[in-house]
Amino acid sequence: MEPGDSAILTHLRRGALEHCVLALLDAEPMYGLDIARRLGDDGVLLAGEGTLYPLLSRLRKQGLVETTWAESSAGPPRRYYALTAQGQVALATFRRTWKTFRDAVDTTLRGGHP
Amino acid sequence: MNSSDTRVGSYLDDLARMLADLDPADRDEVLAGVREHLDATLSEHPDDPAAVDAALLRLGPPEQVAAQARAELTPEVSSSPPPPARGWLVAALVLLLVTSAPFTLGTAVQRVVELASRDAPESMFGLSPLLPTAPLMVLTWPLWIGGMACAFVARRRAPRTWGLLLAIGPVAFLGSWVFMFWREPDVLSAVVAIVACAALTVLPVVVAQRVWREGRTP
Q: Residue A84 maps to which CATH number?
């Protein structure tokens, strides 16, 4: 990553990252470490794995995700996060809007008109 | 406790301290999430100090997590109700000053006049010449109560100083009554009354000015 990329990524993550979390949970309920690994592998979506937990806390408070506990075969019980019906609606709305937004940005970056 | 536990404990302590200003339920939830994250990671690599270092590195510094928590979980300032219209504050100041300052000032002036004309002791030591104003003061009571009510409604416009206004209002009002009827036949009592009435006139004006200065900003 070039210097300066970090500042741009910080701006781009706002509004996008939470929907990436919802998209991961759309497939199946996941626990925190698993979500962090999936999102944090390349360092693009997550600045640090720890920043995921305040985000998950807000999503739960907003009713977009819910939590349940499940035993683990390798270690302590795990808190699983699952998408709620409200979260599914938010994700569907984001998918629609994101496509329009991404196409407009791509077209503009290629020198065309949105 | 081994060094891995110490490093994990130290990380969590630092994070807890940095989240101290957050809502306790939010703080506990974030801390629990990070703790479970570390527990799950370390259960995969027990007794591996390098795994602890790697896990803490991937979590990011506690400052970063705390900054994210504040951004995500601090209520928006704009969610607090807007302050009431400035008109309430204007009404409170006008009503409270009108119902006290003229009477305290009038009493002070009257006692000065009496003291200056010592050759007319019947005026100084007899019934107050201001007594005819007493019915007028009684009539101003509803206005004064209205002023206090307006000050209460406008309290969020001047949260630091509105209490002063409420405290000074009754003091000035009662003072004007006391010094209208307290007429000991000596010079000292007259001087005390003059000074007290002058103070009871100036004090509400000063307080009103402070309240107005705080409350005028939108």
A: 1.10.10.10
